[in-house]
Amino acid sequence: MSEHSEPERERIGIDPEYDHRREDGVDEARLEALLGEYAMGRDDHENAPAFVIRPDDVQEVVSLLRDEAGFDHLSCLTAQQYEDRYESIVHMTKYDRRTHEVTLVVPLPTSDPVCESAEPVFRTADWHEREAYDLVGIEYADHPDLRRILLPESWQGHPLALDYDQDKPQVVSYTEHANPIQADHRVAESDTMFLNIGPHHPATHGVLHLETVLDGESVVDVDPDIGYLHRCEEQMCQNGTYRHQIIPYSNRWDYTANLPNEWAVARAIEDIADIEVPEYAQVLRTMATEFGRMLGHFLAVSTFALDVYGDFTAIFQYGMRDREVVQDILEDLTGQRMMFYFFRLGGVCWDLPEPREEFIEKCRDFLDELPAKVDEYHDLLTGNEIFQVRTIDTGILEPEVAKSYGVTGPVARGSGIEYDIRRDDPYGYYDDLEWDVVTEDSCDNHARVLVRLREVEESAKIIEQCLDLLEEWPEDERTVQSNVPRTLKPDAGTETYRAVESAKGELGIYIRADGSNSPARFKIRSPCFHNLSALPELSEGEYVADLIASLGSLDIVLGSVDR
Predict the structure, then answer these.
(1) Which of 42, 102, 250, 280 is deepest in the core (most CB within 10 A)?
(2) What is the spatial distance between Cα 514 and Cα 506, in angstroms, rounded to a whole number?
(3) What does the pLDDT look like over 79-88, one tens digit per residue?
(4) Kind and range of the H or E element at 563?
(5) Cα–Cα distance between 341 and 349 in angstroms, integer?
(6) Would strands 506-512 and 495-501 be described as parallel, antiparallel, or unpaired?
C-alpha cells in the first residue's frame, strides 16, 4: 500500500483523523488519494469501494493499483448494458490480503462502447475481455486477440445485450474442410506441425479443443478453444427468481464438486438482501461443503492417473471407491447423489438425517479409515516412479505468472501461493475451526496433486470438528434456516461481488439488483476458466505428452469453464 506522510495527506485533501477502513478491509482514504486524478466519481458496491474511471485510463489505473497499492489479483471483469450506457467493471484484490478489495467502474456510451484493455497489465484480462465482447458487445482497444470465445465467430449479435433478439433463429456457418497446414501455411525450413487435440478426446476432460503447434514432439504453441458446452447459465440465472430458482442452476457448473457452487450463489444473494444465516446452519454448510471438496479431489486425482499412465484398474478405481462413500453420505444428508440443492437462502433445507447418531457414526467411520486410504494414494501414485517422471519438473507455473492469469485453488497453492478464501475472507464456520492452508513450492504437475491429497486430509479435520459441534449442539437451538421473505426484491442499484473457495479455486458471483425479484446482471467468475487460460504457460516448450499431464493437473470441468 502506498504510504503518505501527514503533510502529504493534508496537501491531497485527506483529513488526518479520517479513516474509511472497513473491518480488516482496505483503507479507502489511501485509495482516494492514489486514484484522485483518475476517479470521476464513486459508486456503491456492497463488498468494496468502487471508483468510476475513464475508458482510456484503465491500463494506467490497474497498473497503479498493482504496483503502488499491491492489488496483484484481477479476480473478475464484468460487462453489462444499461438503457443509457455500457459498463465494464474490474474487480481487484490481493493474494496476500483478500479482504482488501477495490472495484473500477468504466462507463461507456451505447453508440461506441470501446474500452482500453487491461490485458497488457494482467494476462487474465485476455479471456475476460473476449467474453465481455462476445456476450455483451464491448470492444477493448489494444487487446491482442479480440474475437469471440464462447460462441462461433459467425454468430450474429451479443446475447446479453439489451437489443438482442432471443427469438430470432440463426444459421451458424463454420469453415468447411479448412486445412491448417495447406500449402500457403507451410514454411520450407520449418518442421512444425499443427495438431488438433479434441474437442472429442478423453484426455481433454470434456469438450475442449486444443489448437496445438508441434516442433517434433515439443509444444511450440497451444490455444485452448472453449465454448462447446456453453449453456447461457448467466442468462438463465438472470431470468430466475432469487428465492428458489438460481441456486439449483449452480450444481451444473462444476458438477464434480458442486456444493461450493451453491454457497457462492447463496453468499452473494444473502449479501445484497441482508439475510442472516443461523450459526447451526453455518456448521451444516461447512461440513457438507468439505465433503463436496473431497468429491472433487478424489475425482481429480483418479482421472489424473488415467492421464499420465493410463491406470484404470488401480488408482482410478480407488478414487471411485472412496468417492462413492462420500456420495452415499451426501445422499443421506441432501437426498441427492449429484445435483444436491442442499443450500437455501438463510441456511440449508434440513437438519441431519434421523437417526442422527447413525449418520454421525457413518461419517466418523469414513474419517477413521481415511488416513490409511490417503497413504494408499501416496504408495500407488505419488511414490510411483512412472508418475514421478511424468509430473516432477513438468508443467511449471511460476508464482508471478500464476498471479497474472488470476489462477487460484490447488493450482495456485501448488505454485506456493498461500491464497484460500475460506481463511482469507472467512465465511461459514471456517474461522472458528482449526485447519491449515496447504501449499507446495515446486510449481509443477506433481505439486498440484500433492496439494489435493493434503487438502483431503484438511477437509477431514474440518468435518471432524463440525461433527463434534453438531453432536453437542442443544436440540432446541438447531435452527437450520432463518426467516426469509417469500419474495426477495433487493434495492435497485445494489451491487456485490462475493466468492467462496471451491475445489477448483475462487468461485465468485457478481450480482446487480434492479428492484425486481430477479437479478439485472448475474456474472459467474469460474476458477476453471482462469486456470485453463494459463495452460500455454505450463505447456510451451514441453513434450506433447506433458501437455496432457499439465491439462489434467489443472482439474478443469468444462461445465464450469463455459458456464
Answers:
(1) 250
(2) 26
(3) 999 999 999 9
(4) none
(5) 8
(6) antiparallel
